[in-house]
Amino acid sequence: MDTLFIPNENDFRRWIREALKECLENSSIRSAHQPEQSQEEPLLTRKEIAGMFRISLVTLHDWMKRGLPFHKQGGRVYFLRSEVLEYVKQKRKPSFKTLGE
Questions:
Q1: Total domain count, the chain
Q2: CB 67 within 8 A of CB 87
């Protein structure tokens, strides 16, 4: 015959305390690994990004279709400078192709 364990109020308090402690530790670890820049980085408009690279809005739209990361808020398009710079860096890396391609 199995023994039935009935938790009391102190057991529940201990379990909740341990769960909260674990959640707080995990969230502080995650926030320490995330760059602070992304938390406070301002959103840039299409005109700002186009001006930064001296390209037209049409070219910027083409880049967006090709994978340039962007964010929509309230029907408008915004960019994070760090994401755009990373995308441009990746696209500018030379790709080596074999003769048959």
A1: 1
A2: yes
| pTM of the shown model | 0.53
- Euclidean distance between the first and final Cα of the chain, in Å? 72
Question: How many Cα atoms occupy the beta-carbon half-sphere of 86 within 13 Å?
Answer: 8
The answer to the question of residue 98 being in a domain is no
- CB neighbours of 83 closer than 8 A, spacing ≥ 6? 69
On whether residue 33 sits in a domain, the answer given is: no
- Tell me which H or E stretch contains 4: none
- Other Cβ atoms less than 10 A from the Cβ of 43: the count is 14
- pLDDT tens digit at each of 101 positions of the chain: 678 888 899 988 998 999 888 888 876 655 555 555 546 889 999 999 999 999 999 999 999 999 999 999 989 999 999 999 999 898 887 655 555 55
Pairing of strands 43-44, 71-73: unpaired
Is residue 52 within 8 Å of residue 68, measured between CB atoms?
no
